[in-house]
């Protein structure tokens, strides 16, 4: 997950959820994620367990260290299963074996003969919890050796115990049936105490009228969330059991003999199957509603909360059987034995994922927390801590939701006052997250509108995103989630990009396309090998490295490289320049794609067919936004409130400030800091480059490019192979933004861009002249096809905008991905920085920008909670 958002940003909010820094292949689920053998390794002498006082009758479960675990293959589990079975004499059933022991007078196993509780923290007078026989001893003083210890407050008398392990007694068959099922689905040997905990202890439910906990009858079925939400004990005048107070203590869990496991957890919706042992996730292997939990939900299309073995890891997914780095820091008491924490975290995360259209509350989570015994009371108390952690980290309840009237997570007696500089998506995201916690927020936006580089133009009849409009991977992507939350349309993009040669006016020969594609991929592979194999390689320009490797490969293979192939090669170079927003001779050869080694979003890329305006509008609703308020100075002296000075002299004060402005604005020094920013911060800002592309969209009276449409009617883009390599930044790709469907008012629109050497034409030429170049290029590409006169156009000028001045960041020669972290570092515990230039995991995207707003809100809240 990692949820760490504290500077330095070495692991982001959910940006590297599912990441494993020790793994050689960061996109592969670590082997320890899969179902492991039920035969656990021996306990090391120096290991410390969460349950140090387990009775000797139990087969001790070895403690779990936070280091990566080694997974055994599935056949090992089968071997373990057979081994457990062969503990009985060959050819005899469990019942026959037990009966022989009784008849022969042979002593039962350790777990059967232990009926003793002499723990100092348990009362001298014990009370039997089960009452499953008329001869139950009930409560007896000074007879501890006649009671089996389950937990502080839960014991079983000798007579009830015998009803379970003695052959022919009422509960023996139940125990044996359970034991067989447990062996198939658990990593631990099936003990009698585990059976009592999992199948016999009563359910504790809180009365909605008096708030007291009561036990349900012993024969009661597993309660549902609906039952728990409406439970009324009908005897509110009676006192609550003293055991409830004991189970509410955080240390109570150390007294349990067998860990309480959840029944019918919402996580089963995503984890039902053979991927994991349920008890390793804190869930009972004997769930009664596994099949019901497999039902589909609408969110499955765009959300996948858990990483599954043998599947590629996805950003924003977590390993359900492991704590993330941030979790171990926040909950160190669970590091050795994380199962209770995992049960709670997986429950909350699954509930949120199933219905991400409504603000999740602790109360809803509580009604789905179902387990037997006093363990439920302890887990309910811990649930609030886990919920609050996930909530302020932005792992749940993010996007565009109706905020609760009263914050469900408290951050202190007096919430901070916060000023956010910049009304782009990162600033608005931070503001909305903070408002959900009752924080007073003001957003100061320099321009007359919010949205920053997310701006739509509808003048051509369709949404043309002047800035961001593409979503790179919709699965778990918060942009796709927000589209679903507010009903904004998006369309998945198809694969395949036809290339048209401006020299021939025809489609590029498929053989030429394939040869160049293989060559370019070979260059990237060789380049990657150089980076990984050379010790301390010296950085240089990406262009120089790619072209050098290109020439060497051609010479080594004695390949005759044709002019047609060279033109397509230049198109690939131009496409790479578009991804960086600048000529490749300015881009770091070592770190140009530093984020690609990290876990990314999965699924198809998508186009926001209805633009991003509605998302921006909804994100900003209800927030105090001051437009036309360019900030000139931030004063952040120690022991004083921060003072933010706008152009014209107006001042605002706040406890914390989030700076969410483009990198170009920071580099120009448009905002002065008093005192000055640390040298490390200034160095980080200078190390990244401010890339720039400009977009041109043109509407035509007809779809003259229809010949490129596939048989299924789809066409999302096609490429322009330039006649001259110097023009590779001129209209490298054309995107078909035409209206789809049977619309009576159709609009045929193509959008392209200029970058690299060609980006300045939008400033050197008029918009009309730029559009003429656009149409002339299309004419060269389509040969004999007569290109009609355009009926409308849009040309962007981001480079001229003093409050933006760029498109997205890139890593300059000599810089590294650490520069992103350096810009993201909090200064003096008071100045926070957001924006795509602070996100090393997802730079250059609106997704990355949004996530930094959520990240900084979480960092601010976490630090304020500690201060309070």
Structure description:
It is a single chain. The model is unreliable at 1-95 and 101-114 (pLDDT under 50). The chain is 31% helix and 12% strand. It has 868 residues and is α+β, with helices and mostly antiparallel strands. It folds into 3 domains: 94-392, no CATH class; 417-458 and 613-687 and 816-867, FAD/NAD(P)-binding domain; 495-599 and 693-800, Alpha-Beta Complex (Polyamine Oxidase, Chain A, domain 2). The strands form 9 sheets. The protein has a 7-stranded mixed beta sheet, with helices on both faces. It has 25 helices and 29 strands. The protein is elongated. This is Amine oxidase. GO terms for molecular function: FAD-dependent H3K4me/H3K4me3 demethylase activity; primary methylamine oxidase activity; zinc ion binding. Substrate binds at residue 753. It is found in: Nucleus.
Keywords:
single chain; 868 residues; alpha+beta; FAD/NAD(P)-binding domain; Polyamine Oxidase, Chain A, domain 2; 3 domains; 7-stranded mixed sheet; 5-stranded parallel sheet; 29 strands; elongated; disordered N terminus; EC 1.4.3.-; Flavin_amine_oxidase; FAD-dependent H3K4me/H3K4me3 demethylase activity; FAD; primary methylamine oxidase activity
Write the layout of secondary structure elements.
Blueprint: H1 74-85, H2 94-104, H3 110-113, E1 126-127, E2 139-140, E3 147-151, E4 154-157, H4 158-165, H5 172-185, H6 192-200, E5 204-206, E6 213-215, H7 225-230, H8 242-247, H9 268-271, H10 325-330, H11 339-354, H12 362-367, H13 375-392, E7 417-421, H14 425-435, E8 440-444, E9 456-457, E10 464-465, E11 470-471, H15 478-486, E12 491-492, E13 499-501, E14 506-507, H16 510-533, H17 542-557, H18 563-580, E15 606-607, H19 613-620, E16 624-626, E17 631-635, E18 642-646, E19 651-654, E20 656-659, H20 663-668, E21 672-674, H21 679-687, E22 688-691, E23 694-700, E24 717-721, E25 733-736, E26 748-754, H22 761-764, H23 767-782, E27 792-795, E28 808-811, H24 818-824, E29 831-833, H25 846-867
Parallel strand pairs: 7-8, 7-20, 8-16, 13-24, 17-21, 20-29
Antiparallel strand pairs: 1-2, 3-4, 5-6, 9-10, 11-15, 12-15, 13-14, 17-18, 18-19, 22-28, 23-26, 23-27, 24-25, 25-26
Helix pairs in contact: 11-13, 14-25, 16-17, 16-18, 21-24
Biased composition (Basic and acidic residues): 79-113
GO cellular component, one term: nucleus
Biased composition (Acidic residues): 42-59
């Amino acid at each position: 997950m990692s949820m760490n958002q504290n500077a330095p940003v070495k692991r982001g909010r959910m940006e590297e959820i599912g990441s494993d820094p020790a793994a050689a292949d960061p996109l592969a689920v670590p082997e320890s994620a899969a179902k492991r053998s039920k035969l656990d390794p021996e306990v090391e002498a120096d290991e410390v367990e969460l349950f140090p006082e387990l009775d000797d009758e139990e087969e001790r479960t070895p403690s779990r260290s936070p280091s990566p675990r080694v997974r055994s293959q599935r056949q090992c589990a089968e071997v373990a299963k057979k081994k457990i079975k062969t503990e009985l004499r060959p050819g005899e059933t469990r019942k026959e074996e037990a009966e022989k022991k009784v008849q022969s007078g042979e002593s039962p196993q350790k777990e059967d003969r232990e009926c003793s509780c002499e723990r100092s923290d348990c009362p001298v007078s014990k009370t039997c919890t089960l009452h499953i026989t008329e001869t139950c001893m009930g409560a007896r003083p000074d007879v501890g050796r006649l009671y089996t210890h389950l937990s502080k407050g839960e014991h079983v008398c000798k007579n009830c115990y015998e009803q379970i392990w003695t052959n022919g007694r009422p509960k023996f068959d139940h125990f044996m049936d359970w034991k067989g099922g447990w062996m198939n689905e658990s990593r631990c040997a099936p003990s009698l105490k585990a059976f009592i905990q999992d199948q016999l202890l009563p359910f504790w439910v809180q009365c909605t009228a008096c708030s007291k906990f009561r036990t349900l009858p012993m024969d009661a079925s597993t309660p549902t969330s609906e039952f728990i939400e409406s439970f009324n004990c009908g005897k509110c005048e009676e006192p609550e059991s003293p055991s409830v107070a004991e189970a509410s203590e955080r240390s109570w869990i150390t007294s349990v003999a067998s860990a309480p496991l959840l029944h019918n957890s919402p996580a089963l919706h995503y984890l039902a199957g053979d991927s994991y042992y349920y008890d390793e996730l804190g869930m009972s292997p004997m769930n009664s509603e596994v099949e019901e939990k497999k039902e589909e939900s609408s969110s499955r299309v765009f959300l996948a909360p858990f990483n599954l073995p043998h599947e590629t890891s996805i950003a924003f997914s977590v390993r359900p059987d492991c704590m993330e780095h941030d979790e171990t820091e926040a909950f160190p008491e669970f590091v050795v034995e994380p199962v209770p924490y995992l049960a709670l975290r997986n429950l909350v995360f699954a509930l949120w994922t199933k219905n991400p259209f409504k603000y999740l509350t602790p109360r809803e989570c509580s009604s789905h927390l179902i387990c037997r015994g006093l363990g439920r009371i302890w887990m309910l108390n811990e649930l609030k801590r886990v919920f609050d952690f996930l909530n302020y980290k932005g792992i749940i309840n993010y996007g565009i939701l109706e905020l609760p009237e009263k914050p469900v997570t408290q951050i202190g007696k007096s919430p901070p006052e916060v000023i956010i500089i910049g009304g782009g998506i990162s600033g608005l995201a931070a503001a909305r997250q903070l408002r959900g916690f009752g924080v007073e927020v003001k957003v100061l936006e320099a321009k007359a509108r919010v949205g920053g580089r997310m701006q739509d133009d509808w003048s051509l009849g369709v949404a043309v995103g002047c800035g961001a409009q593409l979503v790179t991977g919709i699965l778990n992507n918060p942009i796709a989630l927000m589209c679903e939350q507010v009903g904004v349309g998006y369309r998945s993009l198809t694969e395949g990009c036809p290339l048209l040669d401006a020299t021939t006016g025809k489609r590029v020969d498929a053989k030429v396309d394939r040869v160049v594609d293989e060559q370019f991929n070979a260059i990237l592979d060789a380049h990657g090998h150089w980076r990984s194999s050379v010790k301390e390689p010296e950085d240089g320009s990406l262009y120089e490295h790619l072209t050098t490797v290109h020439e060497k490969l051609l010479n080594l293979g004695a390949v005759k490289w044709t002019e047609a192939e060279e033109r397509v090669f230049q198109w690939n170079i131009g496409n790479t320049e578009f991804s960086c927003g600048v000529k490749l001779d300015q881009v770091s050869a070592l770190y140009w794609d530093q984020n690609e080694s990290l876990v990314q979003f999965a699924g198809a890329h998508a186009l926001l067919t209805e633009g991003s305006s509605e998302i921006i509008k909804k994100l900003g609703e209800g927030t105090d936004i001051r437009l036309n308020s360019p900030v000139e100075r931030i004063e952040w002296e120690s022991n004083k409130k921060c003072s933010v000075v706008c152009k014209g002299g107006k001042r605002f004060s706040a406890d914390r400030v989030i700076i969410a402005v483009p990198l170009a604005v920071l580099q120009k020094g448009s905002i002065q800091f008093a005192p000055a920013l640390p040298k490390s911060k200034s160095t980080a800002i200078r190390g990244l480059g401010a890339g720039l592309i400009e977009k041109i969209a043109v509407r035509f009276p007809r779809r003259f490019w229809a010949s490129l449409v596939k048989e299924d009617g789809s066409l999302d883009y096609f490429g322009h192979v330039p006649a001259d390599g110097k023009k590779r930044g001129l209209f490298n790709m054309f995107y078909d933004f035409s209206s789809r469907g049977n619309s009576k008012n159709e609009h045929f629109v193509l959008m392209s861009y200029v970058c690299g050497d060609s980006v300045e034409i939008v400033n050197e030429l008029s918009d009309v002249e730029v559009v003429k170049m656009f149409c002339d290029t299309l004419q060269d590409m389509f040969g004999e096809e007569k290109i009609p006169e355009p009926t409308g156009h849009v040309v962007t000028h981001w480079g001229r905008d003093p409050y933006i001045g760029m498109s997205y960041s890139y890593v300059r020669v000599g810089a590294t991905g650490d520069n992103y972290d350096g810009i993201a570092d909090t200064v003096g515990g008071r100045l926070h920085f957001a924006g795509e230039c602070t996100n090393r995991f997802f730079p250059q995207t609106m997704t990355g920008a949004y996530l930094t707003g959520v990240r900084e809100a979480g960092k601010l809240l976490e630090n304020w909670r500690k201060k309070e």
